[in-house]
Amino acid sequence: MEFMFKLPVLLVLAFIVFSLGQGMYYLAKDDGDVDKTRVVKALTVRIVLSLTLFALLFLGCFLGVLKPHGM
Question: How far is CA 18 from the centre of its chain?
Fold first, then answer.
């Protein structure tokens, strides 16, 4: 059960890192002729994924699946 809950958390974390890299690429290399809002869209996706990760971690602690080390 614990691994089944940790897998989505790790996947969301990987998507956050990918979205951050995508936003960095659009900011550094893209000239903006195609779509000038691609940086904003990539960072918006990262924020939504970060909030999803926070909700998953909070839910895991609430249900007792994930236990903090300090407690």
Answer: 8
Predicted TM-score (pTM) of the model is: 0.80
Q: pLDDT per residue over 18-52, tens digit each?
A: 999 998 988 888 776 667 788 888 889 999 999 99
Where in 1-71 does DSSP place strands (E)? none
Q: Are 43 and 23 in contact (CB under 8 A)?
A: yes
Residue 36: phi and psi, rounded to 5, are: -80, -5
Measured distance CA(22)–CA(28) in Å, rounded: 10
15: Cβ–Cβ under 8 A, 6 or more apart, which residues? Answer: 49
- Write the CB contacts of 6 (distance below 8 Å, at least 6 apart in sequence): 66
Interatomic CA distance for residues 53 and 67, integer angstroms: 16
